[in-house]
């Protein structure tokens, strides 16, 4: 067998229940409430009001037990609750992988979108069940729930890629995603007010 500096984990099976949007065996689950999204919505006062009004869960991420280390390939299922803050759809924080590596998302439930930004150009993919969104190396990425139901997707990513959230706070994502009478609309990024 190849001599790795850090020995890989042993082969094992993961049960993927698409209906329940669950991976078994389960690894850690991360819950992000509104207070964790400071500085991300355009309307800071509306964000503060939502934190004061029960600090709702915006999204959760359930992982399999594959570790986030170099050469391993972890998976997770993210569930974004439906909602808006001053018209801006609820979303993930968004991040850049410091070690620029690609990632795939498979949409499972609901109606979402995958917003990507490489520092100059923005890309948007509509995500409905069955869509695989491909995130190329070097593109920061954020998921947005643009529907009335929870939006759920599976992510598979290189374990050593890392997650840089500061990059998105500093550079934004190129666009913001707002609710409109007949769906959603992307508007140019504005710093928060
Ligand atoms: C995803 C994301 C997950 C939560 O697993 O980490 O959807 O989004 P934030 O990490 O931006 O809070 C992924 O892209 N992993 O690399
Ligand atoms: Zn990622």
UniProtKB/TrEMBL annotation:
One Pfam family matching this protein: GPI
GO process terms (BP): gluconeogenesis; glycolytic process
Catalysed conversion reaction: alpha-D-glucose 6-phosphate = beta-D-fructose 6-phosphate
Pathway this chain belongs to: Carbohydrate degradation; glycolysis; D-glyceraldehyde 3-phosphate and glycerone phosphate from D-glucose: step 2/4
Enzyme category, top tier: isomerase
Ranges for domain Glucose-6-phosphate isomerase prokaryote: 31-184
Keyword field: Gluconeogenesis, Glycolysis, Metal-binding
GO molecular function, one term: glucose-6-phosphate isomerase activity
Entry EC number(s): 5.3.1.9
Source domain of life: Bacteria
Any one cellular-component term (Gene Ontology): cytoplasm
Family membership noted in the UniProt record: Belongs to the archaeal-type GPI family.
PANTHER family in the record: CUPIN TYPE-2 DOMAIN-CONTAINING PROTEIN (PTHR35848:SF6), OXALATE-BINDING PROTEIN (PTHR35848)
Protein name: glucose-6-phosphate isomerase
């Amino acid at each position: 067998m190849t001599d790795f500096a850090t020995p890989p984990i042993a082969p094992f099976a993961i049960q993927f229940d698409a209906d329940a949007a669950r991976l078994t065996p389960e690894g850690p689950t991360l819950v992000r409430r509104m207070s964790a999204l400071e500085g991300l919505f355009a309307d800071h006062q509306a964000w503060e009001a939502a934190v004061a009004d029960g600090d709702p869960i915006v999204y959760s991420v359930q992982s399999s037990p594959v570790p986030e280390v170099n050469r391993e390939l972890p998976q997770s299922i993210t569930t974004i609750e439906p909602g808006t803050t001053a018209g801006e759809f609820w979303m993930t924080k968004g991040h850049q992988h410091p070690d620029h590596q690609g990632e795939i998302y498979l949409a499972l439930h609901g109606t979402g979108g995958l917003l990507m930004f490489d520092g100059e150009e923005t890309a948007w993919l509509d995500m409905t069940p069955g869509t695989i969104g491909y995130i190329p190396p070097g593109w920061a990425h954020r998921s947005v729930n643009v529907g009335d139901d929870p939006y759920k997707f599976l992510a598979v990513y290189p374990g050593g890629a890392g997650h840089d959230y500061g990059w998105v706070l500093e550079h934004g994502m190129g666009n913001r995603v707002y609710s409109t009478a007949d769906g959603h609309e992307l508007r140019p990024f504005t710093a928060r007010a």
